[in-house]
Amino acid sequence: MKTCCDQPRNVVALWRRQEHKMSSQISTVIRHWSSLRCDGTIPQRSNLQPHALAAALPNAFLLERPRPDMVRFRLAGQHLHHTMGMDVRGMPLRAFFEIPDRKLLMERANRVFTDPAILDLELVSDSQGRAHLEGRMCLLPLRGADGQINRALGVLATDGLIGLTPRRFRIRHSNLSLIQSEQAVSCEFQETAAVWRGRPDLRVVQGGKA
What we know:
The chain is of the alpha+beta class.
């Protein structure tokens, strides 16, 4: 995969500090999504197995994209409800973000479905005098019942006191990893995801069907 970043990586050791608290939920979701890609295709939403995501279910969510200008929550774990102080099912993804960052968010989120790609966001929430809250969100493309890439598996992990809700985030850094083709992906990719430490260097392992 190729990566595309919107700004230089000048935030020192952000994910090293949060690794122990946030990497477990992130790696659980990445590992399961990767395990469904043995034939190299984008996984079907129907193939997700809740028991495989058990350790991350409070932080996990499912998105749907009914049209290009709308990405909304279909299902969401309790951590997302607590972060917003309400049930987020049916809410647009952009509701979790501060207004100045919503355009960038939607530009990147739409590419998860169209390219397709994996989106990895480093987040921070500290507006209006609220306690400092670090976060990381990852979005992984899925196919819906019609075979189209119009679903996504996501995970939001945070470190810090949620405090007064709703909590909305700024994007500190975004990383878009393009899935260039639906070739067969070797088990090396899955193993890389399973031991993902901090921020990954995602890549397609060449080989398999042309």
